[in-house]
Amino acid sequence: LDRVQSLVLFIGNARSGTTLVRSLLDAHPNVVLGNEVNVLERLCAGEDWLTVVGRIFASADRFRRTPVWEGYGYDVRRSQRPSAVLVIGDKKAGASARALMKDLFLLDRLAEWSSLPVRIVHCVRNPFDVITTKTMRNGRTLRWNVERYFETEQTAAYLSDQLGPRRFTRICLEDLI
Prior knowledge:
This protein is an alpha/beta fold. It has helices at residues 18-26, 39-44, 49-65, 93-102, 106-114, 127-138, 142-163, 173-176, and strands at residues 6-11, 31-35, 68-69, 72-73, 87-91, 118-124, 168-172. The strands form two sheets. The chain has a five-stranded parallel β-sheet, sandwiched between helices. A two-stranded antiparallel ribbon has the order 3-4. α4 packs across α7 (142-163) and α6 crosses α7. The radius of gyration is 16 Å and the shape is globular. The protein starts with 5 loop residues before the first strand and ends with a helix.
């Protein structure tokens, strides 16, 4: 961990391409990204940082061996053998966004807890696709899902303004594809 330079967290709405982006980034030989470890929840629960790092590495390894999430395949081969890990992180976008909506100081606590600069990746997809899929799956009203969608996006906009382009990256799924 001596060479790790940053901790990456994903924020955003479910169904916005976070798993694809996570898989592409994790394929880089210097990056290890867990899948749904929920780092912020573990911080709030008082879990030890090194234990969470172990969870991140184990989650990334599991996902590489079985790269399927919600029925979709995400098999992205690493182009090189893993080398020095410079970036670690986790993809739990919806829960991370909700936690930060409630307490924006969590990012400061996270940076102190991990001793790493925190970087945010925000994946965005056409809201019609996201809201429609969520409404069909979660049994809530269209209005409820629209409100939740835009609450998350409002949190992301705030964080983007606060953190700036060096610490906050927005990726539009349609542009990426």
